[in-house]
Design goal:
The structure holds three protein chains of three kinds. By secondary structure, chain A is an all-alpha fold. Chain A is built from eleven helices and no strands. Chain C contains 17 helices and 21 strands. Classes of the chains: A mainly alpha, B mainly alpha, C alpha+beta.
Amino acid sequence: MASRSRQRFLRNRAGLFGLGVVVLILLLALFAPWLAPKDPSQQFFEGLTIDGKPLPPGGQFLLGTDTLGRDLLSRLIWGARASMIVGLVANGTAVLIGALVGASAGYFQGWVGALLMRLTDVMMAFPALLLAIALAAILKPSLWIVALVIALVNWVQVARVVYAQTLALAQKDYVEAARALGAGNQRVLLRHLLPHLFPTLLVYGSLGLSTTVLLEAALSFLGVGVQPPTPSWGGIINESQSYFTDAPWLVAFPGLAILLTSLAFNLLGDALREALDPTLR
Amino acid sequence: MTTYLAQRILQSVGVLWAVTVITFGLLYLLPADPARLVAGRSATQEVVERVRHELGLDRPVPQRYLGYLGGLVQGDLGRSYMQKTRVSELLASRLAPTLKLTLAGVLFELLIGIPAGIIAALRRGSWIDQLVMLLSFTGVAAPQFALGLLLLYLLAYKFALFPLGGYGGLEHLILPALALGLAGGGWYARIMRSSMLEVLSQDYVRTARAKGLAGQVVVYKHALRNALLPIVAMIGTDLGTFMGGVVVVESVFGWPGIGQLTWQAIQTVDIPVILGAVTFTAFFIVLANLLTDLVYPLLDPRVQYR
Amino acid sequence: MKRWIVAAVLSLTLFAQAQSPGGSLTVSFKDDISTLDPAIGYDWQNWSIIKAIFGGLMDYEPGTTKLTPHFAEGYTVSKDGKSYTFKLRKGIKFHNGRELIASDVKYSLERMLNPKTQSPGAGFYGGIRGAGDFSAGKAKEVSGIKATDNYTVQILLDKPDASFLHKMALNFSFIVPKEAVEKAGADFGHNPVGAGAFKLKEWKLGQQLVLEKNPDYFMKGMPYLDSLTFLVGQDPNVAFLKLQRGEVDILGDGIPPAKFVDVMKDPQMKNQVVVGNQLMTGYVTLNTQVKPLDNPKVRQALNMAINKERIVRLINNRAVPAVQVLPPGMPGYDANYKGYAYDPAKAKQLLKEAGFSNGFSTVLYANNTDPNPRIAQAIQQDLAQIGVKAELKTQAQSTVIQAGGTKGQAPMIWSGGMAWIDDYPDPSDFYWPILSCSSAVPGGWNWPWYCNKALDKKAEAADAMVQPGQEAARAKAYQELFAEVMKDAPWIPIFHEKRYVMHTAKVGGSDAILVDPIHTPVNYAQLYVKK
């Protein structure tokens, strides 16, 4: 990063905040065994009331316990691992594929565009639930399969939106000018289209992180993903949603973790973009 | 235009065909024996085999697929394994509720997302922009089941402004649509904001803005139209996916949409219902995408049908 | 000497006059009602609705598990237990106005046994003479079912079966009018015509089902209600709010788990809850054909490793810990049986004796609906304490059922959400379908793949005790049989769930009716509105 860009970035408080949160969460994920106060899978006898209700935040269990009497804070810290892998790998792959397909289809159009966009049609109508159940029975459940399924399903929305934008951008004067000057397709796509597509991709990269983390839980529920007792943020929410009126902390804390992470990525991305290319807003 | 349309319709038929092939293949992979499930837990092997024969599951897969395709072409989707009802009847009973919720849901997404996005773009960097951002991210990160329950508890139970779920008139429709709108509106706000900023940053818009009010109005109209392209794409995908059912919202609000039907069918491996529901959904997705592709050139005349 | 067993209808009609007729009630359910065809419906939700619309030769005294003739006036059993003769009541009318006669009984049973009907209950009736030939297409009719005159039906069995009368009280044997079935074809399940207490008034798929009183019902003064509405697609949490508003009268799916403790602590709400038993056992199957679970010592050790009290607490004490196969209330249940007490130290010791002092690794399957993944995790933790590492696989119900029925696949399965609730209140229903040699087959429900031929013989002998007065001896025989089963320890019995029915104050009916052991959630025909 050029020093001027770095200075611009360092002046952006929101961006620094985003960077701080992202680093913090990655550290949590990385050093979970040392940072978590308790064993995340240990079902404490004293972690439930005599009627079997989870304990509210405070006391021995800082953020309260879940419906099995486990320490919520420790589960959140450990859950950062699964959720970050899914959020970054699955969502990142989806955005990447979506951007490539959408931009190519919009830029080249013709039969290439038609083929790519019909492929997205098929994928959109694709029964992902069925795929998940079939995979769950055939393969050993793992996070990577979840990431694969999510990437396979989620790129479609990105592709449709990027396609629409590229359709408009490809007609713009500067693109046509670049073409007239003899710029290759690759150069036009990367230098002239991508910077304009970046804001959209950032939205999908950050907001998509939330939906992906929640989707992971739904797929794990069907047996494809992390199996209990391994924690994930989405999984904690999924397990306790119906108890939410009674034990709101079980939904609120993991929800906040997801919110904060996706917000942080958004702020960070926005700041990086401004730092690198101040002419674009 | 006509050639384009004809081409697209032909392609769409191809897409539908591909979806049926994939679904059929997946069902074949499913780790469950529908004949066993239909025959019941007390059935002997002979009974199961007889049921398998009755269901036609003893035929080779390609033959079964052709049978399904033949029926589909004639509008016959077969009968549910579990309920014995015609699949077409089951789908028909869910069509109107699904369509209503889909349209209302997208409407709420737009009502929430578009103004929020425009305001955020015009007041870029202000506290309003930041508030909109925070709310968008909260809406998207909020778990739908909890959100729906909260809406019902507050607006329907505590303050009795709406009925406690169920299917019926407009008063029944508002809360589930609002739940969809709150979750999806954040996306629209963010995308609207970024495409508005993109358009606003262009030279001709900057110049026009500098020129004063009259020019400003014209330009906003023009800018808005350009910024709407990705929004139209999102509407298209949402129309399609919502027509496939929104299981969580449907189940919280007791809305008899297709999502619940499909979910139950998958749980019980009710193959004809699954196939019917997937085909039904695919049809609407293809239709929605076709319509959006036809809308683009209307919004931005430089985009052409090809 | 034949002895006619005759129903106690008189006492019922006297009882009936105490209630004021009229009014309507609403019941909520989450799942849609799949079908009302008695030959097809096979889940507890539509079973009791079907029981309200149809009827069979036999029934149970309301609120009990005691058999009583229903559309039959009485019956006789031959000395060898292989022939039953039922005398029909005269003047019973289908909802279409036609009188129900003996040929309808024969038609209904044959329709259910016909493979074209695809009845999930056909397996219960394979013991009727000629049923096998008929369903294989080798015979035009079932030779063992005879309508000797308009009001007499004789049914012959291949061998004596003490649970046969229960099977004649089971939905699959309910009587349907041929003309209505033929008219509706495969849509009969949505256009039901029976001879029961209620008839179908309106059905909006996925929304609601309305039944109305059958004015020609053969029991005078019954049912009390004018109409009965089932609201479907209702999330239990929302239904609970509706109940408090009076929009719903009975929670069909029970009290939502998150609200249970609060309800039971609130003196006013607690008054609206009736507690009853359910003929249900939840258990972990231990696959006797998979190493190292093929070693009985290992299975016994696992039985001692599970802290059932803690698991029961996880579900807010809505169950009682189980030590045996049969649930309380079932003939043959042994209140004095102690089973394997919770004793991790002794469990470890047994494992050591079996040669697994360092434990072993295995896989535990579970259905993915709450609370089953949580219960499976509790079991997993208990097993870990004696060194057994169980990897969890929580999957869709149909996937787990498939895994259980595949030889050598699933070492352990937590049965919750799938098994086992009785089909009818007879101990044989806890043996033949889930623990006998004939059920240890691919696709079967004997998930431990347990087969003990000696016990099969014992069960057969017990099932031959069909004469009145032999009930106690038969229950004793089954009690001994299940004690033998537990010695081999193919299961870890975990708990017997209790039933909690929550209703509004206007719902009338004795507690026994509101937690009727046969009808879930309640016995609709016996309900009334408090005025």
